[in-house]
Amino acid sequence: MATEQAPTLDADVIILGGGPVGLAVAVDLAWRGQRPILIERGDGEVVHPRAGGFTARTMEHLRRWGIADEVRKYFNPDFPLNQRFCLSVSGHELATARLGTLRETPTPPETPEKHQRCRQMYYDPIIRKRAIELGADLRMRHSVEAFADKGDHVELQVRNLETDEVLTLRTAWLVACDGGRSWVRDELGIGVQGNRLNHSLSVLLEGDIVGHGGEEAAERYIILGPKGPWANITTMEGENRQWRMNLRFDEEPDLATFDPQEAIRRAVSPDADLKVLSILPWRRSNIIADHFQSGRILLAGDAVHVMTPTGGFGANTGIGDAVDLGWKLQAVIEGWGGDALIDSYEVERRPIAFRNVFEAERNHKAWSPAEDISRIAEESPEGERIRRRIGEGLVEASYPEWNSIGVALGYAYLNSPLCVPDGTPPPADEPSVYRPTARPGHRAPHAWLSDGRSMLDLFGNGFVLLSFADKEAEGVDALLAAAAERKVPIRVECIADGNIAALYEQPLVLVRPDGHVAWRGSQLPDAGGLIDIVRGKTVTPQVRTQVERQTYYAQARREPASELAA
Ligand SMILES: Cc1cc2nc3c(=O)[nH]c(=O)nc-3n(C[C@H](O)[C@H](O)[C@H](O)COP(=O)(O)OP(=O)(O)OC[C@H]3O[C@@H](n4cnc5c(N)ncnc54)[C@H](O)[C@@H]3O)c2cc1C
Questions:
Q1: Does domain 11-76+114-192+290-340 have CATH number 3.50.50.60?
Q2: Could you tell me the residue ranges of all domains in the chain?
Q3: Which residues pair with 520 in a beta bridge?
Q4: Which residue among 158, 256, 480, 541 is the one 20 to 30 A from 176 at the CA level?
Q5: Cα(278)–Cα(49) distance, rounded to whole angstroms?
Q6: Are strands 137-140 and 37-40 parallel, antiparallel or unpaired?
Q7: Which CATH architecture has domain 412-565?
Q8: Could you identify the atom of ligand 1 that is nearest to the CA of residue 58?
Q9: What is the pLDDT of residues 87-139, one digit of tens each?
Q10: Cβ-proximal residues to 295 (8 Å cutoff; 6+ apart), any chain
Q11: What is the pLDDT of residue 294?
Q12: Per-residue model confidence as pLDDT tens digits over 7-18
């Protein structure tokens, strides 16, 4: 009788797509000692940058990967971050949100890293180089043409676009990061929900914008007309050199007849003279996939959530997916992850997608004044009054877009099967306010240690049991023994700092490899039982229904937080 042979794998993980999210999966896995293969059909050159604003949370991940300093170099720290609402760059100003410069912006006390700008043409090469340094195998100019989940592995047909040769590759896990029009998602029959907002053209420009707008430069000019906002122009590097103009259309624009110079004259000034470098059509949408996983295939980034760029949450949310997946894949590859560990990815991340899409949509709505603005361009004292009133309203309404630390740091895996609730209610989740908490499911809070490191610098490699107790806590040895028996990497960090102990609220706190709190308390429970929950071996019941409720909460914001904690 023939015996079934386990297939020889080319890699434990293959990543499809080398955009910011696929690259984040590659670098996180490689940082964890894995050797994933990444397949990308492009050559890596970013001709037309999209993502460029990276949240404090993403910067914290980049810090762990060793590239935060590098990413900080590619935006002029002295360029004004002003957001100006106007009728055109040279036309009437409605109001300006004055946000200082990056250099003047202090790092918030709740994080070791502040929000940063770095356009994709600089960001992607930095993260790609780091992934290679750490051991990831990046195959550019290769295209995945077919895939099949065989139950115990995934088989891929991959074409080398340089030689036309087709290879068959086998992997234990496929992570599809193939963007908003995800072919993998469609092939798997995974549906989406959400709405498509408007058609957009992104026009990359070179030349002088600032000179047309008076003395004060702005990072972004948001341009309104009598029918509402119709264009915005953003500096790419914090220099008066390369700019991206986004134009909105109700109907799909015809590129053959579209005249970018006419749009430039209207949006900037009748005498503006800018070079058009490239034009990228895109669709402003808010879309979330019904599932983030199908068997051995996981989907991340725009493949499972597309959101309007207002707030710059798209790539950041996808990078969060990557970090949630990295340690879970490591755990199952190394044999210490439980059967339910990978399934927890969708349970944890899909509600965050709803939450962030909701915030992006709210930011988008804030650009459209609620009142009638048909007289906004009128040259009269009444027109001037309307402009001033509308401008003030726009600056106030758009405040959460420029101040989104709550969105970046305040997300939590509220009903995760891997986190043990401690009975405390979650703090209010607000876009511009972050309330540090070491409640299970939340990001373990930052504080500076006396040796100059951040608390966050302690996390990443395996689980960390933080001990704030002044004497050796009972049960720690049993926990370490239970973890060792199950090959779960764990270590103890004793912190003798009263302020940090107060921040974490309990003498013992167990932090996961992605920096989220799994458990906290004054006394360790059954050691084996706890380790089996946090490694996804024991499945806690009713996860599905609670997640659906949480999802609803994220969408509608009307379910009381206390019910969610139940
Ligand atoms: C105007 C604009 C501004 C934005 N600004 C921001 C911002 O400031 N901050 C932010 O966080 N987000 C921003 N976003 C959103 C951000 O660009 C996306 O969320 C992000 O690019 C998604 O990354 P991804 O890796 O999931 O997908 P993508 O960047 O779309 O990458 C997918 C990759 O998969 C590859 N691929 C697809 N199919 C195959 C195949 N069969 N074989 C091989 N390779 C394949 C593609 O070539 C591509 O490189 C912005 C978006 C727009 C439109």
A1: yes
A2: 11-76+114-192+290-340, 412-565
A3: 509
A4: 541
A5: 10
A6: parallel
A7: 3-Layer(aba) Sandwich (3.40)
A8: 11
A9: 999 999 999 999 999 999 999 999 999 999 999 999 999 999 999 999 999 99
A10: 149, 151
A11: 97
A12: 899 999 999 999
Output the CA angle 258-262-267, nearest 5 degrees: 115
Residue 482: helix, strand or coil by DSSP? helix
| Ligand 1 shell residues, CB under 6 Å | 16-22, 39-42, 50-53, 143-144, 177-179, 183, 202, 246, 282, 301-303, 309, 312-316, 318
Encode 76-90 in three state secondary structure: CCCCCCCEEEECCCC
**Does residue 545 carry a pLDDT above 60?**
no
397-426 pLDDT, tens per residue? 999 999 999 999 999 998 899 999 999 999
Please tell me the total number of residues recorded for the chain in this structure: 566
Distance CA 95, CA 84 (A): 6
- The helix or strand, by DSSP H or E, that contains position 368, with its residue range, turns out to be none
Q: Which of 375, 384, 512 is nearest to 438 (CA)?
A: 512
158 DSSP β-pair partners: 144, 167
Q: How far apart are CA 84 and CA 81, in angstroms?
A: 10
Give dist(CA 162, CA 239) in Å, integer.
37
Contact (Cβ atoms closer than 8 angstroms) between residue 114 and residue 101: no
Ligand 1 atom nearest residue 202's Cα: 1
Are β-strands 220-225 and 83-86 bridged in parallel, bridged antiparallel, or unpaired?
A: parallel
The closest of 128, 152, 158 to 14, measured between CA atoms, is 158
Q: Which residues pair with 286 in a beta bridge?
A: 195
Could you give the CA distance from residue 243 to residue 330 in angstroms, rounded to a whole number? 40
Is 130 exposed, middle or buried, given 0-12, 13-18 or 19+ CB atoms closer than 10 A? buried
Q: Using alpha carbons, select from 376, 393, 394, 397 the residue that is nearest to residue 385.
A: 376
pLDDT band per the 50, 70, 90 thresholds, residue 541: low
**303 secondary structure, DSSP code:** G
Output the CA 294–ligand 1 centroid distance in Å. Answer: 21
Amino acid sitting at position 139: R
Written as six digits, the tokens of 226 are 């009598």
pLDDT at 3: 56
pLDDT in tens, 478-505: 999 999 999 999 999 999 999 999 999 9
